[in-house]
Amino acid sequence: MSKPSRWKTYRPVIALSILSMLVCGLAYPLLITGVSQAAFPYQANGSQVQLGGRAVGSYYIDNGFTFPIFFQGRNETNPLAASASGVDPDITLSDALSQVPRISSATGIPAPSLDALVKAHEHWTLWVTGDPYVNVLELNLALIAAYPSSYPGYA
Amino acid sequence: MIDAIQALTVVAILASALISGSLLAPYVVRVLTGAPTRLDRLLDPVEKRVYRLIGADPAVTMGWKQYFFAALLLNVAQMAIAFAILVGQGVLPLNPQGFPGLSWDLALNTVVSFATNTNLQHYAGEATLSYFSQMTAIQFLQFTSAATGICVMAAMVRGFKPGSVHMGNFYVDFVRVLTRIVLPLCVLAALVLVALGVPQTIGGYVTVKTVEGATQTLLVGPVASLVAIMQIGTNGGGYFGANSAYPFQNPNPATDVLQIYLMLLIPTTLIFVFGEMIGKKKETRPILIGSYTLLAVDLVMAFLGSIPVVGPGIETRFGGFFSTFWTVITTAVTTGSVNASLAGINPLGILSAFMGMLIQATPGGKGVGVMYMIMYVVITVFVVGLMTGRTPEYLGAKINARDVKLVMIAFLVHPIAILVPTIAAYATKAVDAIPGFSSLPTSVGFTQVLYEFTSSAANNGSDFFGAAANTPFFNLATAAVIFVGRYVPIAILLALAGSMIGRKRVAQQSLRTDGVAFSVVLIGSILLLVVLTFLPFLMLGPLLTYFQGMVNFFG
């Protein structure tokens, strides 16, 4: 093949691959970023949760609670208990309720009140039905808000 | 087992995919046939300029060879661009985490994997790729591989259409599919995903002090734009190593259901597109009945196994039900995204996943699912012809000896590409390089290796190993399997379609292929072909694990 005809064959291939990269790889994600930052800044930046005026984590990422006064997330260091992501923000309702006696004895908050608080923050895998679970960070922030005197220095 | 409400959820999601697929199909057909659409006033001038810029004449029509090689060359050129970006990301912009370039074998594996709609990942994105790479290498190839799949299917259907004289023009198909179908859908889906909680920023990872005062890094990035195309394009390669199990990729049940729906949307649409493009809507029936019946069988099989409320490798917000459901769907449409660790799924669920990837048409990947279904139809027509003593015909065309040879070769590519490297991985002791492999029970280890190559050959991309398989053997072996598993069957099936052009068509076929009876025979022959080919290997893998009484693959 002579040079010009080879160029005629390869030009669409080369030009279209560059053009598609610019459109799909740059224009598209940057457009979505721009619109998202303007329309949904909270979600677009990782659904950051505030406590006492500063960001303490994301609603969707395990906050790593270890103190006995707080509800704790899944034990991600044990492979047979760990989630797939390693940062599962949720625990089952029964897991949360099983932690109530520990929190009650560590803080002095009556167990029935803690049970009620847990139940008030239930979510379900099928919205209104399915398996109940709680978001650990959401629950602990509610705990701090409801019993500020038991959590000095947090609120 | 699942309960009634969960069963209803499954039916509702499948029904939504079927309804929206049938509604979207006429529009897709208009795009593929160049009929007027509402977007013309906006996009026609843009397209004209694109054709001029790239030096392609949209009026030129192509034969199957020209069409195939245009697609292959374009994909290879796109791989080259992405390869350069991945290897050189250390000096490229938008790299706030300062990640270095990838090794050549990992970069090669990654670009082959993504350009072929496979998305097998031997890396964890959040610890390996810059924002620039996630956008200009990963998302870029996810778009182009999805568009390529739809294009080659359109070409194949044109070949089979009675009275057609050419396969179309690849460049025109590619540009129109990208700008009129894939991009608009992704823009919409990405914004919905952000609204539901998926991050979208290029501002760098965020470091915070947790409630208890520890330091935590939030791995935010341009996630939603990637999730939209990875699901709509049946790509499956995630932003994070944990894929859609990672909360930023799939934060809640709403995004989970949306992503399952998005995976099913285009493959289901293309089933309806087939009948409309052929000009005989009824011919969609066997493909529709066949693919969705087999999908239902896979779902029932998976749900018969253990469905834990929460267990190891299962995210609390999805539970065993949504994790198992997702695993079946993601393999049925060969997406390959996961919302759980595969090791946490019960052995029957993993067997279902294998069936999805081995059949590749339930309803299968973008475009290629329908192509494989046509392949099975031709095989079935031939078998039925032998049994009834009549000349096999499909869409009025006589099926000759060469056609049958072609479809048989296309079918056989798959077992060879899966089984040979699986055995090679053991024979060369390459499996020993995978951390922790030697301590796994034999059936669990074998399931994982077989899954790796099945997923590669089927261009699915889900796997047990993830970054653990980042070894030269697995990077190069899976890259080769992916390449063969993608382009060889496409080339053969396009050759078959190309040979249909100009072939004499009879008005009245001796065997009707648009009825329920034929659909049943089609399902039977698919199961027979696939089960006979792979049963010994499935016995040594997930079936053995099941009979050993294990509830999952944690060993």
How would you sum up this structure, described in words?
The complex is a heterodimer of chains A (155) and B (555). By secondary structure, chain A is of the alpha+beta class. Chain A has 2 domains: 3-41; 47-150, no CATH class. Helix content of chain A is 49%, strand content 15%. Chain A has 6 helices and 5 strands; from the N terminus they run ααβββαααββα. Chain A has a 3-stranded antiparallel sheet with strand order 3-5-4. In chain A, strands 1-2 form a two-stranded antiparallel ribbon. With 555 residues, chain B is mainly α. Chain B has a two-stranded antiparallel ribbon with strand order 1-2. Chain B has a two-stranded antiparallel ribbon with strand order 3-4. In chain B, helix 1 packs across helix 9 (253-278), helix 10 runs antiparallel to helix 11 and helix 14 crosses helix 15. The longest helix of chain B has 32 residues, at 516-547. Chains A and B meet through helix 1, strand 2, strand 3, strand 4 and strand 5 of A and helix 1, helix 2, helix 3, helix 6 and helix 7 of B.
